[in-house]
């Protein structure tokens, strides 16, 4: 199976496209509709939209906004944010969303099972946030809350057993840094799962995407790598060609 390159768009409460660093400070990037149209032209593999304010505010998915966004999107779209029930996914599916990303609600394995049973594992995606503690030991952090400590691989296996068909493995420490993925984390998890692992957090340029795939990820996802350029983080929407990615992959072999 060909490995995928996936832009991740973070939207906030005001329906703006933003980018965070370490899940903290936000930078305004632009209008999500305009960015979707640009990615259409670049024929990206698929796209993932995450509403980063929905769950913290206890809000359901913004269905009207997502319906409009999906109508402009010519590629498969995944969505995460505020999903707490299978009935919400039925509405999202009718709006044009093909995959459902569970973040904090992935701790409800019953919900993971229900989505996998209703929509199929291929549509059920779990996002696992991982951070390092003071001893540089990696552990799962749910909704950015401290005190929840789970081994990343053990947690991913539980989600896989519950029916998740894909795992987004996100490094909070690398989020927005543009210094590259946590490759050791990818190597520690991806080879031990039977479902695809999507690396997220840290990519700033195309070589980082290639490094994640070389480390074992089935797909490399990023926000920064596709919307920022240069040290000053100027906004420029881009997407690497397959020829470029093939050359980078060959350089790592």
Automatic annotation (TrEMBL):
Keywords: Amino-acid biosynthesis, Histidine biosynthesis, Lyase. GO terms for molecular function: imidazoleglycerol-phosphate synthase activity; lyase activity. It comes from the Bacteria. One of its GO terms (biological process) is L-histidine biosynthetic process. Pathway: Amino-acid biosynthesis. Signal peptide: none annotated. The keyword Methyltransferase does not apply. Its EC number is 4.1.3.-. It is an enzyme of class 4 (lyase). The keyword Lyase applies. Pfam families: His_biosynth. Belongs to the HisA/HisF family. This is Imidazole glycerol phosphate synthase subunit HisF. The gene is hisF.
